[in-house]
Description:
about 300 residues, single chain, YojJ-like (1, alpha+beta
Amino acid sequence: MFLExxxxxxxKLRNIFLSFDITDLLDILLVAFIIYQAIKLxxxxxAFQLIKGLLFVLVAFGxxxxxxxxxxxxxxxxxxxxxxxxxxxxxxxxxxxALETAGRNGLxxxxxxxxxKGDRVESNSKIKTAVSEFVKSVSxxxxxxxxxxxxxxxxxxxxxxxxxxxxxxxAATSQMFGNVFFPNSPLHDGAxxxxxxxxxxxxxxxxxxxxxNVNKELGTRHRxxxxxxxxxxxxxxxxxxxxxxxSVAEKGNLVRNLTPEELEEILxxxxxxxxxxxxxxxxxxxxxxxxxxGMFDEKK
Length: 300
């Protein structure tokens, strides 16, 4: 019986290969293209949060079906009957961006990105160099009381935030950071985004925190840094233009009065050290607890 089953599956597999033609190959490539673009669309924005919300709705619907809750079941069935329309409405900005990108870059650009390994894999040495250069610049800005706000992107890609600023894709040198945040320069008031050891964009607008417990004396830069850290896993560094104080925000927490050495240690641990996410957060919260006395006690 077992041998017959194996023989039957082998025969089916042989027939599939014999009937395989160029149309099937094109079909597979088209499906791969759609899946790739969908994943890229979700990774490059915060739309992943919507996906988690939809999964929660599906789980709730399963429970409602199991409990035979007829009124709720009717509402959910009505919702799912128009699921395609709902998804188009929810993801309309991302879909439009994907179509615009496809039209602008064309098939050649897609083929290059699809078959060549992504440019997000960078060596630790490159990131360490960028951190070292950044700390030099921050130290200088702190001494001269130059305001700055820098976002170090991690797993959560900040495509939506980058679109609010100007993409520069420049080497992360102390001189370049100094130019970006030079007082009265066009990009000075926005945030700089550092992606994999390079200054990817500048002049970006960040969401302000809605936390009412934040000290009212904190300025816009600090509120924006806290807000961005609440909505992503990024590390944000702020220098105050009034006091020169260096601060770091992560996961809604703000640590102030940092020295350049402490800043470099936090950035290296957060960007280089390969630990579980929980370990990074716990380490940062422990550091925050030790510095609690300096938290939220200074002006912008």
